Model the fold of this input.
Amino acid sequence: MMIENFQRELMRGSLDLIVLSVLADRSQYGYSIQKQIRDASADQVKLPAGTLYPLLHRLEDERLIRSRWEKSTGRPRKWYEITASGRKQLSAQAKQWQSYSQCVERLLTMVGLRTETA
Amino acid sequence: MMIENFQRELMRGSLDLIVLSVLADRSQYGYSIQKQIRDASADQVKLPAGTLYPLLHRLEDERLIRSRWEKSTGRPRKWYEITASGRKQLSAQAKQWQSYSQCVERLLTMVGLRTETA
DNA sequence: AACCTATATATCGGCATGCTATACATAGAC
DNA sequence: GTCTATGTATAGCATGCCGATATATAGGTT
Done:
């Protein structure tokens, strides 16, 4: 609605994809996922804790990721790793994302709004 | 959640952008917007009426588009055109979309999931 | 005339998702 | 001993999308 809020609205529906792809890279815990996404996006994508943790729980309920508490060393952390089923889902979602984003690009090109593709 | 439903979830947040870009191309009425998006996307993006009309009303409330009933010729139709403010918003949203989609692409590349860019 | 289909717009209720605020706890720095 | 960064969690709220449903018109068929 407001311009400043648009990117948040934009991310709806693709956060699963982002989190799964980060976990496909390497297993890690919630807080580090948050940081990796923030860093990898040059501070453009910031997942608030209130978004991230429920999302992780949802992904775990769907057996796309698996968790394990690590309480012995330092601060207690909950480590997540992607499952085989999660990788399958990620691959399917990535394909759909690309097909969809190409669609949008085509529409924007039509109106002459598309800039250079990286 | 389910793979078949993902693309719908994906579109969340970018439907405004899509509709605005179609209207930036040329003024038209709801039903034809629906068809143009369906055609332009090779049936990949189908906006149900229950999505499209409330969306148009919202955009009009925000003064991004403007409507006018045409009841004299044939079937009554409500024509929509984009406003100056709508074009400004479209341009800003398009930039954010591209910046965001490049972010996602980068994350997917990292995991080796990205295919060729068109 | 009666009927059917494609066109055309509209709204309601339900559902999923994301965010703010809040809470709680630990480790390390000062 | 206090402060800050780290680390996880949830309730409550807002938003947005969609299926179902309703209404109406134009044009074609029988």
Observations:
- Chain A is about 60% helix and 10% strand.
- The mean pLDDT of chain A is 89.
- Chain A touches chain B through 51 residues (CB under 8 Å).
- Residues 8-9, 11-13, 15, 47-48, 50-51, 54-55, 58, 74-76 of chain A lie near DNA strand C (CB under 10 Å from a C1').
